[in-house]
Design goal:
333 residues, mainly alpha, three-stranded mixed beta sheet, 3 strands
Amino acid sequence: MAASTLFHLCNTLSLFLKKTCPICIEPENQTSYSELLLLGLSDDPEMHPLLFGLFLSTYLMIMLGNLLIILAVISDSHLHTPMYFFLCNLSLADISFSTTTVPKMLVNLHTSSKSITYAGCLTQVTFFSLFACLDSLLLAVMAYDRLVAICQPLHYLVIMNPRTCCLMVLLSFFFSFLDSQLHYLMVSQLTFCADVEIPHFFCDPSQLLNLACSDTFTYNIVSYFIGTIFGGVPLSGILSSYYKIVSSILRVPSSGSKYKAFSTCGSHLSVVCLFYGTGLGVYLSSAVSSSLRKEAVASVMYTVVTPMLNPIIYSLRNRDIKSALWKMIRRKA
């Protein structure tokens, strides 16, 4: 039923874009864009080995840190709770998010090549949109989890039962998949001039819209609408949850109880601020600066740095995770 609804929605949007936008192309003409160029972060060849080493080490840290979080949760039965179930899914999303962009950038840096196939570019657009949206939705789900844990502690395990938790993750993935398909449909309908040079290290949908040959007014409207729905709604849910959490905690008379309640939200709140703060920073930098290359450098923050810092934040600020990691390390040793 859900798959059928998704198919009809995507098909309707595709027909709408073809009828209303003059730059839409038929599927048989899309193969003419056999290759696009990713300009990357620097044009200086001497910088490539340094950038390669830096991003390779960062990518390995992302993989190691998030995999350790997942293994720690799986190996320790005390962590088989809704909060850590959502954390595992967030770690998987972070790994996938970085894997969408970083490996291709490493290959291009290593080979001093800037090319990416048209199919590869569409693949990046699809998975980048998928996992960026999934990160946002999972953070909203985790905020709701903290809300129930603090405001309704006696009913927490009843409300956040395994079936509900799985359903929330599946719905997050479904809406993220819908978001990715809408972005794919938009980008696949664009026409480009010869020698498309993308001033970025991956196929950013917004950059592709800017590089289209003809008017992209319809696509920009659809893009802002999608961003408002799939970005604004989760953020509103997070803000609403924390408003209720803070209101509930302030009514607690004991300062010790207040600190304990706030400490359970500390890691999640830090990750939320990092994720949305870096995203907002990139948006503001693109609005203030006319340099597209500077925008690409700023994008490193939310595509690479944020997935690397998330497991560090959760491991440093969470005693249960630290304890599980030490137990796992001692067991292996």
